[in-house]
Amino acid sequence: MRDRIYLFDVDGTLTSPLSEIDEEFADIFLNWARPRNVYLVTGSDIIKTQQQLFDSFIDQCKGIFTCSGNVFYSKGRKVFENKLRLPDNFIKDLELYLEQGTTWRTKMGPHIELRPGMINFSIVGRDAPPSLREAYYKWDQETQEREDIVDYIPNLYPEFEVSIGGQISVDIYPAGKNKAQVVDKIQQLHGTNANIVFVGDRNTPGGNDWPLAQRLEAMEGCEWYQVSSYEETRALIEHGELFI
Ligand code: M1P
After folding, report:
1. What is the pLDDT of residue 146?
2. pTM of the model
């Protein structure tokens, strides 16, 4: 009998971007998750995710992969963490883009956040208040600036890749150290025959869920779903054929 494993992205899938999880949805999700093998897979770090989901929610899942799979926690304990080694001038090249590559002017900082196994890079800055986040997000949709950054870094450093996970930033990691790496860990835990089902909101090229969706696409018995809100995720777990 093959284990069925459910993987869920967090921002845009279980919560609105960088918001706390809706209480009613949290109850419904946990009741559904309790008898199942459920893991969370986020581009964000554990501190931000704890602010959104709370420890009690996280602890009722089998585990959580943060920083795009570069860190893994289970039962409140860190199980592994990938290290990041940056080439000389890497940070300087990000700073150059901040000074000369963007036409966006209102910046709050910090722009470069070093996390285990990856870097988060934000032109507007992580301290931007909600109104400024929204303004940048709207502007980015018009100008496609983050798509430009997705190309800029690998052009300079082909051994790195960049993806878009949230509203105001990009995630940068060594090529291949993206969410798709979670499959290897799941197979170690549940066997190479496990049926993996993934739900995410960024399953298009350049999105941080894309590498994982693509890997599952090539695996027999595995599925992925695109959602655009936690309400759509709720509909899936309540009515989706593979979620019964
Ligand atoms: O989890 C999705 C993303 O959430 C944040 O994105 P942003 O601040 O751009 O909305 C970041 O933590 C990012 O790393 C993460 O992928």
Report:
1. 98
2. 0.96
